[in-house]
Amino acid sequence: MTSDRAYHHGDLRRAVLTAALDVIRAEGPAALSLRDLARRAGVSHAAPAHHFKDRTGLLTAIAAEGYGLFADALAAEPDLRERGVAYVRFAATHPAYFQVMFRPDLLRADDPDLLAARDRATAALRSGVAALTAAGPADDPRLTGVAAWSLAHGFATLLLSGNLSDAVGDRDPEDVFRIIGRLLFPPDRD
Fold first, then answer.
1. Dihedral of CA 175/179/184/189: which sign?
2. Residue 154 · residue 135 · CB < 8 Å
3. Same domain, 178 and 136
4. CA dihedral in degrees (76, 61, 96, 176; nearest 10)?
5. Does 103 lie in the same domain as 129?
6. pTM, two decimal places
7. What share of the chain is helix, strand, coil (3-state, %, to 5)?
8. In this predicted model, what pLDDT tens digit does every residue of 52-66 receive, in sequence order?
9. pLDDT for 20-77, tens place per residue?
10. What are phi and psi of 50, to 5 degrees?
C-alpha cells in the first residue's frame, strides 16, 4: 500500500465529500457517481459505500454539512435583512452545497443529521422573521418568512444560474440584494 493510498484511507469520508463537492460545482449533482469518486480518491469502488451506503447517502451528508455551515452564516447576522445578504453570500461562496441542500428529491428526508442541521438553519431564519414581525404589523408571520425566503433564495438561484449578470453588472451582488431589500421592505420611517 502506498503512503498516498494510506492517507486517503485515513480520511476517506472527507476525501469523498471534497471530491463530490468539486464534481457538483463543475457539473451539477446529476454527474455524481460513487465509482468515479472512488477512482478520484484512489480507493476501491466499494470503499465510499462504507461511509455513505449509496449516492443518496452521500448527497444527504453533503446537504447536512451545507445546512450546518448555512445555519452558522445566518446566525452570525443581527437582523433579517442581513441574514438575507448572508443567504446570498452563502450561495455564492458554496454553490455546490446550495445546489444539493434544496433538492429533497436527492436526499434521505429522515436522516437525523440532515434534520438537525436544517432545523438550525430554519431557526436562524425564523428568529429574524420574528424580530421583523414583532416590530410591525404582520397578518401571518409564516407567510412573512416565506416572502423573505423567496426573495433571498430566488435572488441567490438567479445569481448562480447567471440570470442576473446584466442587472448586477460589476456591482457586488450583496450590495444589489441590499438595494432590492430596501425597495421591497423599506426601513421604518418615523
1. positive
2. no
3. yes
4. -20
5. yes
6. 0.86
7. 75, 0, 25
8. 999 999 999 999 999
9. 999 999 999 999 999 998 888 788 888 888 889 999 999 999 999 999 999 999 999 9
10. -65, -30
Q: Which domain holds residue 145?
A: 54-184
Contacts of 89 (CB under 8 A, 6+ apart): 73, 174
**Residues 100, 135: one domain?**
yes
CB distance 149 to 125 below 8 Å: yes
57, burial (CB in 10 Å: exposed 0-12, middle 13-18, buried 19+):
middle
Give the CATH number for residue 85. Answer: 1.10.357.10
DSSP letters of 151-163? HHHHHHHHHHTTT
Specify the residue for cell string 476517506.
12
Residue type, 60: T
